[in-house]
Specification:
The complex is a heterodimer.
Chain A lengths: L5 H9 L7 H14 L15 H5 L14 H5 L9 E6 L2 E2 L13 E5 H7 L1 H7 L10 H8 L5 E5 L9 E7 L7 E2 L2 E6 L4 E10 L6 E10 L4 E9 L5 E10 L4 E8 L4 E10 L5 E10 L4 E10 L5 E10 L4 E10 L7 E10 L5 E10 L5 E9 L3 H9 L4 H17 L5 H14 L3 H4 L6
Parallel strand pairs in A: 1-5, 4-7, 5-8, 6-9, 7-9, 8-10, 9-11, 10-12, 11-13, 12-14, 13-15, 14-16, 15-17, 16-18, 17-19, 18-20
Antiparallel strand pairs in A: 1-2, 3-4
Helix pairs in contact in A: 2-7, 8-9, 9-10
Chain B lengths: L1 E10 L2 E11 L4 E5 L6 H9 L5 E9 L2 E2 L5 H6 L2 E4 L6 E5 H15 L7 H14 L4 H4 L2 E2 L5 H15 L3 E5 L7 H13 L6 E6 L12 E6 L2 E6 L1 H10 L2 H7 L1
Parallel strand pairs in B: 3-10, 3-11, 6-9, 9-10
Antiparallel strand pairs in B: 1-2, 1-4, 4-5, 7-8, 11-12
Helix pairs in contact in B: 6-7
The chains are: A alpha/beta, B alpha/beta.
Chain lengths: 440, 249
């Protein structure tokens, strides 16, 4: 056992671990003790060095409760969007800021701690069943600390119109805070919902978020999932999203990564029954010395399953991004379709991207495409705009925005699309120049 | 308005323009004809300021200014407009927003107040009629999914909105069917006036049936080898380019 995880062991010893889930936590911790943090000799971690996380003695022990005002939260809310809200401050559920009263029939939204006592049967059936502690040490670490997080259960044939907005906020975190949010979303047969997970740093502190989300979709269920990562530019963020899909179910993932000093997002989709479809859209915009790694994996386990993946990156400064998209078509998974694309725009000479599509196909009647591009702004487009009286700086900014917006513009839910477009514009070097080109 | 003296230009190591002279006065329409590879499009691109062309010798004076010193956008502000031979598709950049920004950039340069949304809409409604632009095209991304004819029409539409002093039309007629050619020509004709100069770069005489030039020039091997009136175009149509090349040789 290495000493660099002593802080987590101390945290664990302080944890009130006396419920029915206690053994699961303990074995997850034991697993983490054995493996420790992943190192870059592992293929899966080749391009992302997590030593900065390892070196620092992060702890989930919070001192005095941090207060966040309603006004502060309003600035990050979707304007005018009526949603069900679950708010966590420094990893701890905030009943005060959450709005979980008057939920629709057939919908459960609660803090994981409450779910552990209220919905033991459902949790026993689903929790830890889709995110494998053995695959990532970070997942094991998260499992050892399952307490805070969001549990959502949508009953069969229930359509939830209001989006469920989950806010993980970090503030005054004292430079050493670790949080391990754990979410579980269970979608009954034929149910439908929209969930937004946002991770937002309200200051520029150094903290560590280690989030895991598990999703189970019964047959014909539809879930639209948005993840908006706006951590502090000094924060470390590790996020794991694991999805198990039943017959004819549809999962849509939109992952927007803007913040963080060191970020790793993993998505793993398992198309476990015929007709299941997964859509994975992702946008990462990096600058300075940010490091953002997106790893995705789709398992086509059964015939007639469909996956479509589209990731785009805009890299500036000395930032570095990684895209690794793995598609595995299992034996007998005939007549599947898998499409994958990753396009990158490098705005500076010092930015770097490692992009790697991986296809493993063990069936013979399949339709698979993949492609990756890395480029600069198109010179013909740039000249065209300048010849139309648009100054060079604005033209560059506009084309960058247009590149990123390709991913956002097809989000058909306007409040989310508009907010994301604003966020993307805000991320550009010359945001003010191009506002007049948008609907704002 | 425009005075080109002994212009030499290269792409890479290849010299394309080899001592071109041309003078265009306000209100005139000049047609520049010539076989493929004679340097027609290079001339249009050099005038508009596209990267990748190296001017090695000669001068281009526009309204008393050294045109070659100006960035592409500065040329546009000063009233130079290039209608592209191959208008580029720009996904994600809306036609109308681009045009509004373009109009206001030019107005700002001219010391005029910028148009607000309502004024701008009034302006484009009026101009749309000229080239029979369909409204739904207007709200799409620039040229995205447009047919060849629609792209060319969009160029003329932009030109009518921007009201340039010097318009250079690079093979605007190529790829157009006769109906589209008529619409585009009518658009160009409606923009003719005493202050506006137009340079038509074309391979075919066909366009000149609809837009009557004041002067016709034949460009061959990087130089203007013959100039004349509208009749010269007819003669070219009839006899091809070879006789002039021989005459010039």
């Amino acid at each position: 056992m290495s000493t660099d995880i002593q802080n987590y062991i101390s945290d664990f010893d302080r944890l009130k671990n006396d419920d029915w889930f206690a053994n699961s936590r303990q074995s997850a911790l034991n697993l983490f003790k054995d493996t420790g943090f992943p190192n870059s000799r592992l293929e899966n971690w080749k391009y992302t060095d997590v030593r900065p996380i390892k070196k620092k003695s992060f702890s989930n022990v919070t001192e005095a409760a941090v207060s966040v005002s309603t006004e502060e939260i309003n600035t990050i809310r979707f304007d005018g969007l009526d949603c069900i809200e679950v708010v966590f401050i420094n990893g701890v559920f905030s009943k005060e800021h959450s709005s979980l009263d008057d939920l629709d029939n057939g919908l459960v939204v609660e803090n994981m701690l409450d779910a552990l006592s209220n919905d033991q049967d459902l949790l026993a059936k689903h929790l830890t069943k889709y995110a494998d502690d053995k695959v990532s040490p970070f997942t094991a670490l998260n499992t050892a600390f399952i307490q805070n997080g969001t549990f959502i259960n949508v009953s069969a044939n229930t359509v939830i119109e209001k989006p469920i907005n989950i806010l993980y906020l970090a503030k005054d975190s004292n430079g050493s805070l670790a949080t391990h949010p754990r979410n579980l979303i269970v979608m009954g047969e034929g149910s439908e919902a929209t969930v937004i997970e946002s991770y937002i740093g309200l200051d520029d502190a150094n903290y560590f978020t280690n989030a895991v989300t598990e999703v189970a979709l019964s047959s014909s269920a539809i879930l639209k999932h948005y993840k908006i990562q706006q951590e502090s530019l000094n924060a470390y963020h590790i996020g794991n999203l694991n999805v198990m899909q039943g017959k004819d179910s549809k999962f849509e993932s939109h992952s927007i990564s803007l913040g963080g000093a060191l970020v790793r997002n993993d998505i793993h989709g398992q198309l476990a029954a015929e007709g299941a479809e997964i859509i994975m859209n992702g946008l990462y915009m990096t600058g300075d010395k940010q490091h953002v790694d997106n790893h995705t994996r789709v398992d086509h386990l059964k015939p007639h399953t469909l996956s479509t993946e589209n990731y785009r990156g805009v890299l500036n400064g000395k930032s570095r991004a990684v895209f690794n998209g793995k598609v595995i078509v299992h034996k007998d998974a005939q007549k599947i379709e898998a499409h994958q694309n990753n396009a990158n725009l490098l705005l500076s000479d010092d930015a770097e991207i490692d992009t790697k599509p991986e296809l493993e196909i063990y069936a013979d009647d399949v339709k698979c495409t993949h492609g990756a591009t890395v480029g600069q702004l198109d010179q013909n487009m740039l000249f065209y705009l300048r010849s139309r009286a648009i100054d060079e700086e604005t033209a560059r900014s506009l084309l960058t925005y247009a590149f990123a917006d390709e991913l956002i513009s097809n989000i058909n839910f306007a409040p989310i699309r508009n907010r994301l477009e604003r966020l993307v514009i805000g991320q550009l070097p010359d945001a003010a120049l191009i506002r007049e080109f948008t609907n704002e | 308005m425009l005075n080109i003296q002994d212009l030499h230009a290269k792409i890479g190591n290849k010299e394309i323009l080899k001592g071109l002279n041309l003078s265009v006065n306000a209100g005139e329409v000049h047609a520049i004809m010539g076989p493929n590879g004679s340097g027609k499009s290079t001339l249009a691109n050099v005038l508009a300021g596209r990267n990748g062309y190296d001017v090695t010798k000669g001068t281009v004076e526009y309204e008393g200014k050294d045109l070659l010193e100006l960035a592409p956008e500065e040329r546009a502000w000063a009233g130079v407009f290039l209608a592209f031979q191959y208008p580029v598709e720009i996904p994600g950049v809306n036609n109308v927003y681009l045009l509004k920004a373009a109009v206001n950039a030019v107005r700002k340069y001219r010391g005029q107040t910028e148009l607000d949304a309502v004024e701008f809409l009034g302006l484009i409604k009026e101009k749309m009629k000229i080239v029979k632009m369909k409204e739904d095209l207007l709200n799409r991304s620039v040229n995205e999914g447009f047919s060849g004819g629609e792209k060319k029409r969009n160029e003329i539409f932009q030109m009518s909105v921007l009201e340039p002093k010097l318009a250079i039309l690079d093979e605007t007629d190529s790829g157009l069917d006769i109906d589209a050619l008529k619409i585009v020509s009518e658009g160009v004709n409606s923009l003719r006036n005493e202050e506006r100069s137009i340079i038509l770069v074309t391979h075919y005489q066909r366009l000149l049936d609809y837009i009557k030039p004041d002067h016709v020039h034949v460009l061959s091997n990087g130089k203007i080898i013959k100039s004349g009136g509208p009749d010269l175009a007819l003669e070219l149509e009839e006899k091809g380019y070879d006789w002039i090349k021989e005459e010039a040789a």
